[in-house]
Amino acid sequence: MLTLILAESSIELVPNEITGHPAILKWAERKEKDPRELILDQSYHHSAILGLGKSGIGRGRPDIVHFCLLLALGSPLNSDNQLNCFVHTRDDYVITIDPRARLPRNTDRFTALIEQLYQASVVPSSGPPLMKLSRESLKDMLSKISPDNVVALTTMGSPKPMEAVATGLREAERPTLIVGGFPVGHFSDQTMRLASEKFRIDRRKLEAWTVVGRAVYDYEKAIGTVRF
């Protein structure tokens, strides 16, 4: 079974220093929520994020995680119970997703679901949990999973076709693949140190969801997922 981790993902509550910004207040009024309960979103809070200066680069992109999860959870690999998905956020929260979860197709609805998750730590509030939130570092999370091979896909890695990377993952008993859930930049040094191998699967910079799509498909081929 493959474990997929979207690491350092651009999901977070609105930072305290910009909760009073007009763009944040306007969005909070529209959603009838406290500004501190909103997920930062570049689509609606762009002017507020600019106020964060350089520290705001690459923040407020819940859509990246949304697209990646839709691809992963909708795959034959997941249907065959051969995939576990986790989201690690830039400020060290971990979202555990039940493989049976059917996420909203609309990104605004997905973001609203994440806002609910940050308030309740689990969704839905009753019945089997489809998503759970915990305060946890990537290192601590990996310690619980105890993978025997942790591969990070990054433009800072050694060039290697995804097909070859997938073949290597197939040989491990508990393979784990780390993909960045952010739009620009690179993994932190801390995350890089947690990976046993680091590969670049294309000479071009690829969007996170493209990387996830390729990785899942090539792993399916590597393990011989039956399609017909």
Please characterize this protein's 3D structure.
This protein is of the alpha/beta class and 228 residues long. It is built from 9 helices and 8 strands. Strands 4-5-3-2-1-7-6-8 form an 8-stranded mixed β-sheet. Helix 1 (22-31) runs antiparallel to helix 2 (42-50) and helix 3 packs parallel to helix 9. It is globular and about 50 Å long. The mean pLDDT is 96.
Salient structural properties:
228 residues, single chain, eight-stranded mixed sheet, globular, alpha/beta
Briefly say what this structure is.
39% of the residues lie in helices and 21% in strands.
Low-confidence stretches: none
Using only C-alpha atoms, the radius of gyration works out to 18 Å
For the sheet with most strands, the description reads:
8 strands, mixed
Give the helix proportion (percent range).
25-40%
Major β-sheet strand ordering: 4-5-3-2-1-7-6-8
Strand content: 15-25%
How far apart, in Å, are the first and last alpha carbons?
21 Å
The DSSP helix count reads 9
Order of helices and strands: EHHHHEEHEEHEHEHEH
E-strand count: 8
Oligomer: single chain
Helix-and-strand structural type: alpha/beta
List the helices and strands and how they pair.
Layout lengths: L1 E8 L12 H10 L10 H9 L11 H12 L2 H4 L3 E7 L3 E5 L9 H14 L1 E2 L7 E5 L2 H8 L3 E11 L2 H9 L4 E6 L8 H6 L2 E4 L7 H16 L5
Parallel strand pairs: 1-2, 1-7, 6-7, 6-8
Antiparallel strand pairs: 2-3, 3-5, 4-5
